[in-house]
Design a protein that fits this description.
- There is one protein chain.
- This protein is an alpha/beta fold.
- The protein has helices at about 1-15, 30-40, 50-55, 70-75, 95-100, 100-105, 120-135; strands at about 20-25, 45-50, 80, 110-115, 140-145.
- It has a five-stranded parallel beta sheet with strand order 3-2-1-4-5, sandwiched between helices.
- Helix 1 runs parallel beside helix 2.
- The chain is globular, with a radius of gyration of 14 Å.
- About 35% of the residues are buried.
């Protein structure tokens, strides 16, 4: 697992030494949390299907990602943002009200795809939605796609 976040970090540092806006889809998973924590010189936005459940003091359900309130307290450069995860029928947060695209993609220098767990239909939809929306809102953003399998984790 260590090589996954090292690869992402190296690519981000090669792109620019200045502080960047980095968006991570799948950032509430184990690899995403490691990457987000290491990017302390950058502003990191983790896209999550339910920011409220992702920040509860203890994990409420395994159906949604979770980083916990302590993670966000420790890593103040990280924020969470609700999105639909590529499935418009699965909107759990405020995506349809506030527009995650304008909030996150317009100023993103790097978009990291870490929706792991294998190549399921939902993961493919999430990646496709993120690429489509970023082309619309910010075609100059650099995309990094890492899809670790459960065995790799």
């Amino acid at each position: 697992m260590r090589f996954l976040y090292i690869a992402v970090l190296l690519l981000i540092h090669v792109i620019s030494a200045a502080a960047l806006n980095v968006v991570i889809a799948g950032g509430t998973g184990p690899v995403g949390q490691l990457v987000a924590a290491k990017l302390n010189q950058h502003k990191v936005t983790i896209l999550t299907r339910n920011a409220f459940l992702a920040t509860t003091p203890s994990r409420v359900t395994k159906d949604h990602g979770w980083v916990g309130a302590a993670f966000l307290e420790k890593y103040r450069h990280v924020q969470l943002r609700d999105w639909d995860g590529g499935n418009l029928l699965n909107i759990l947060g405020l995506d349809w009200l506030l527009g995650w695209q304008e909030d996150t993609l317009v100023d993103a220098a790097v978009i990291v795809h870490l929706t792991g767990g294998g190549f399921t239909e939902e993961r493919i939809m999430a990646c496709a939605r993120l690429v489509h929306e970023s082309i619309t809102y910010n075609p100059d953003a650099t995309h990094i796609t890492v899809n670790p399998s459960d065995a790799m984790l």
